[in-house]
Amino acid sequence: MTEVTLKKTRVPHTYVILFCIILLAAIGTYVLPTGVYERQKDERTGRTLVDPTSYHHVERNPVSPFQLFQSVPKGMVAASEIIFFIFICGGVFTILQDTKAIDAALSKVIIKMKGKEKLMIPVTMFIFSAMGATMGMSEEVIVFIPIGVALARAVGYDDIVAVAMMGTGANIGFSAGMLNPFTVGVAQSIAELPMFSGLAFRSVGYVILYIAAVWYTLRYANKVKENPDLSYVRDEMRANAEANRLTEDIEFTTTHKLVGLVCIGFLVFMVYGVIEFG
To answer: Looking at residue 179, what DSSP letter applies?
Structure first.
């Protein structure tokens, strides 16, 4: 028998990837044709706009090694408002995770809904979509999947319903992005638009996405509850029947309630501050 050793493929660290992109951009200044568009300030809106008919070639001005390293702090200064906004949102979410306030609140709300399973899906999706729309929750939802699986199984749904409630919920909020700092915040700061302008339009998009996602998830969940053999993961669930079984209620303490109130207060204050005070 010949022993085969498989090599693990490792994705480089985020900073390495970012530095490689900066390096490639700098190298491009030595080899790519150079040209610019004229920019002018719109007196009506105060935005700097590009004249699409003004492109012309200019003399090449390659980036020196020293300028290459300067680009990082200069870029951070230029985008400081949105960078610190993202830091704050990330910090708030990390605190929520560490206090287990979200876990406890979800457990409390959903267990109270035993016998009202159909209500569990829209409520859970709304909670996660709200976090996706305001704090940019997306892949972070993975840490909550085990409790979602346990709760879904407890009321007769399958694991796909659990992932849909949390994962799809978070991502429709992230996609609509009413107050998402990672998408809308960054894009509008680059475009020199008022921060989170167009909120009403994105809110309409959110409502449409939310209704569609809830309807589709409920449709599948009802089908699985009536006939578990129709589940796409029935074999895996039977093989792991005891996995993630919900055995007890997670206590929802006064501390968890206070953390939740502070978080809601933060979001309300953030919306008001952005709209009223920029």
So the answer is: T
- Regarding pTM above 0.90, the answer is no
Query: How do the residues of the chain divide into helix, strand and coil, expressed in percent and rounded to 5?
Result: 70, 5, 30
Q: Locate the DSSP E strands across the chain.
A: 35-36, 39-41, 48-50, 56-57
Q: Which residue has the tokens 């799809």?
A: 168
Place of tokens 């050793």: 5
Q: What are the structure tokens assigned to 269, written together? A: 């204050």
Give dist(CA 102, CA 209) in Å, integer.
Answer: 23
10 Å CB burial of residue 195 (0-12, 13-18, 19+) is: middle
Span 182-229, pLDDT tens digits: 788 888 878 878 778 888 899 999 999 999 999 999 999 999 988 988
Hey, how many other C-beta atoms are within 10 angstroms of the C-beta on 169?
A: 30
How far is 138 from 128, CA to CA, in rounded Å? Answer: 9
95 phi/psi in degrees, rounded to 5: -60, -45
Q: Max alpha carbon distance in the chain (Å)?
A: 77
Report how far Cα 42 is from the mean position of its chain's Cα atoms: 33
Q: Name the DSSP letter for residue 115.
A: T
Please tell me the distance from the alpha carbon of residue 138 to that of residue 201, in angstroms, as a whole number.
Answer: 21
The whole-angstrom separation of Cα 226 and Cα 220 is 10
Closest CA to 156 of 246, 226, 239: 226
For the segment 5-63, what is each residue's pLDDT rounded down to a tens digit?
666 778 889 889 999 999 999 999 999 998 888 888 877 777 788 888 888 888 888 99
